[in-house]
Amino acid sequence: MQRSKGCAFLMDMGTGKTVTTIAVAGALHKKHWISNMLVVCPKSIVNVWEQEFAKFAAFPHQVTVLDGNGSKKADTIRHTVGTGLQVIVVNYESCWRLEEELLRWKPDMIVCDESSKIKNPQAKCSKALHKLGKESEYNLILTGTPITNTPLDFFSQYKFLDEGIFGASFYSFRSKYAIIGGFQNHQIVGYKHLDELVTKAHNIAYRIKIDEAVELPEFIEEIRPVKLERQAQQIYDSIDKDSFAELMNSPVTARNVLTRLLRLSQCTGGFIRGDEDEAAQQVSTAKLDALEDIVDSCIGEGKKVVVFARFVPEIDAIAAMLKKKGIEYALIKGDVKDRAKEVEAFQTDPNVKVFIGQLQTTGMGLTLTAGTVGVYYSLDFSYANYEQSRARIRRIGQTKKGVYIHLVAQNTIDEKVMAALRQKADVAGLLVDDYKKIIGGAGYAE
Fold this sequence. Notes:
Layout: E1 6-11, H1 17-30, E2 36-41, H2 46-56, E3 61-65, H3 70-78, E4 85-91, H4 92-97, H5 99-105, E5 109-113, H6 124-135, E6 138-143, H7 154-161, H8 163-166, H9 170-177, E7 178-181, E8 187-191, H10 194-203, E9 205-208, E10 219-226, H11 230-248, H12 254-268, E11 271-272, E12 281-282, H13 286-300, E13 304-309, H14 312-325, E14 328-332, H15 339-348, E15 352-358, H16 359-362, E16 371-376, H17 383-390, E17 402-409, H18 413-422, H19 427-433, H20 435-438
Parallel strand pairs: 1-6, 1-9, 2-4, 2-5, 3-4, 5-6, 10-17, 13-15, 13-16, 14-15, 16-17
Antiparallel strand pairs: 7-8, 11-12
Helix pairs in contact: 1-2, 6-7, 11-12, 12-19
């Protein structure tokens, strides 16, 4: 095994990349080898790191998630001091903008989560992390698939880990492992020395494929917290407060309560609507951005994804996002007539990577076993619908392990609904009977 300052955790989604990294960081901190740590990840999972540290880190630590504008983030970095392991979590887009402040902070350990984000050696974030990686003592990349297009995708990620593995020059690396030809002798027409390339890459790698992880349950549950944008959270809080006031001044019926809960749920999914005849207005893309990151990771790992959503505007936004990315999908919602055709496309066509289903419409009778990742974009208040939708993926004919991911907007009704579903509760009844615990969660005076 080659000695290196860097290590690659090439671990499929659901096999514990985050908790393994926390364990490594804790061991290094206990030996007094690291005192501060930088985690760089997609924007949609910065809060996951904070949550996972709180759950699994049995050692002194302080996690700081950088948010706000650039000057606020820079100021936070400058004032991040304390006892225990100091951890800063930042998204890739902000990382390169904060390069100088992070260099001055001098992280002992840097983790790049979903490291395919830095596979392009010319990208600003990649260049920033190459510089940061040279200064740190230990580096980690976390990804299920370091290669999404060509074997050359290894270079930039491994340059961050340790320049001693593949060198510092992409052109020298390409010359060694790629065959150049084609138009004006500038195109890659093949590859060479791949045995050497793979051997070097895996000398410092730890690989787990979910199908081979015998100790894992058949399907893993994951709650992925999503933080609404500041303006979206303000809109949600305003709807929440208005709903509480309306219920305090009108007859409380199940219909009245559920109508107001419905509006709150719509908002967490990114849309609000006034009267029924009005078009829905998009106020947030937080969940959409989180879903996009998940889809990118799954496609990179060769997995198909089933997305369940409650509201039509959400489904239309998801479809538009996939279409823009050139990702083929199948879709079932209320107005889709030939549902068997959509299911068959997802089940049999290798090019159809995603199935989008309206929760109420696809909850029963469909077989979606081609999917091994189920994403709950939004939920209704029916435990029966929830259980039936889960059974679309994990049922007779499913031969692989998989993951259920729930996108849960923080400090919203999503958390209450998810908690009730996990208790197998009659969610609608619970929410109506205990609506004061849901609506007016900010503690408005009665």
